[in-house]
């Protein structure tokens, strides 16, 4: 796999993902623009989001939320959700 110039640190060529993480246009953008290491960082952040907001990743609304967060966190499009670290690990939807 050829190194790519990751959008998050373009000065430093980095290993690309072997394949898009999703079968969608967003997945292909990630493979072209986000290196394997930043994707791993995102997956850890995603786990925090899932735990913090009590998401069920099988539900379409949870998937939509997480895809929106991929765009916000990795591509700077839209608003990244805040994680209140004082409540980290608590289960339940926002406000409940
Ligand atoms: Zn990167």
Précis, in short:
By secondary structure, this protein is mainly α. Helix content is 45%, strand content 4%. The chain has a single domain (3-78), classed as Fe(II) trafficking protein YggX (YggX-like).
Descriptive account of the structure:
The protein contains three helices and two strands, in the order ββααα. It is globular and about 40 Å long. The longest helix has 18 residues, at 36-53. Strands 1-2 form a two-stranded antiparallel ribbon. The protein has helices spanning 25-33, 36-53, 60-75; strands at residues 3-4, 14-15. The protein has a single domain (3-78), classed as YggX-like. The chain has 96 residues and is mostly helical. The mean pLDDT is 90. 10% of the residues are buried. The structure holds zinc ion. Zinc ion binds at residues 6, 8-9, 14, 34-35, 37-38.
């Amino acid at each position: 796999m050829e190194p790519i110039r990751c959008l998050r640190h373009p000065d430093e060529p980095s290993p690309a993902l072997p394949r898009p993480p999703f079968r969608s246009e967003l997945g292909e953008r990630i493979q072209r623009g986000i290196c394997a290491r930043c994707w791993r960082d995102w997956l850890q952040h995603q786990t925090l989001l899932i735990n913090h907001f009590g998401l069920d990743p099988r539900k379409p609304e949870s998937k939509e939320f997480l895809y929106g967060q991929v765009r916000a966190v990795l591509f700077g499009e839209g608003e990244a959700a805040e994680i209140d670290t004082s409540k980290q690990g608590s289960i339940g939807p926002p406000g409940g």
